[in-house]
Design goal:
Blueprint lengths: L3 H17 L8 E3 L7 E3 H17 L4 E4 L5 E2 L4 E9 L1 H5 L6 E8 L2 E9 L4 E6 L3 E4 L2 E2 L11 E4 L9 H14 L2 E3 L4 H9 L5 E7 L1 H13 L3 E7 L4 E4 L8 E6 L2 H16 L9
Helix pairs in contact: 1-2, 4-7, 5-6
Amino acid sequence: MVDLLNLVERVKDVVRNAAKLTQVSDFAIKEKEGESYNLVTSVDIAVQNFLQKELPAILPGSGFYGEENDQRDTSKELCWIVDPIDGTANFSRNLHLSGISVALRDDQDLVLGVVMNPDLGDMFWATKGGGAYLNGNRLSVSNKDFEHSLICTALCLYRKRYTDLCIEAMRDFHNQCADVRRLGVASLELCYLAAGKVDGYFELRLSPWDFAAAAVIIREAGGVVGTVKWDGNDFKMSENLVLDAPSPVISANCCDNYHKIGQIVTKHMESFDLSEYNY
């Protein structure tokens, strides 16, 4: 059995060292597959290469599932799920809203998560059963009801044919909650939910490296996070996250708000042709 409390301290040290690689003013930016909205920088690559070396070294025999360069060895029971820089577009424009995200998956169970904003120095972390923290302070979700909630959301960046679906869901959120936010960095937005800064979240298509670490942090802070799956007849909510492919992600500070967001989302998903949706 892995000693998670000892392990997370070592992971935090690795992430802090990885964050030093982001503190550069000169870096290359490329478009993936010629898409202007799908960016990768030389810093993304440097951070992932560092994490791919250091994380398996502190947990021998573990796999590594990273966003860049198709580094996806998921055959091991213990596997790191890594986004070297979540919010690359923000990072490339020096907006100070990006995150290094590291999760540990034990079979299909997420057991450890660390998310760091390298510009602000904020580090969120949690282990299963051990609570969630920001810079050493215990985290707890808010107690806001839906009417008074701030909901973070986003358009479907890599599947723009679903823009209308996202906008319709966003309109419903806005009409029924306090307001909506779009920060462009899923891992931090989800961590802000864990910290009680926002109260709900929805994105139609996130990859595991975008949400895995934050999911541990949210659950340990008392929140709820899950997905929407097609069961052959209907779209249904599930707290069993998809850890090997893109999927919708829904999260909230409490079950009532989670189900409210899910009802809005599934209503709009059912009204669109999602036959080409790649889970």
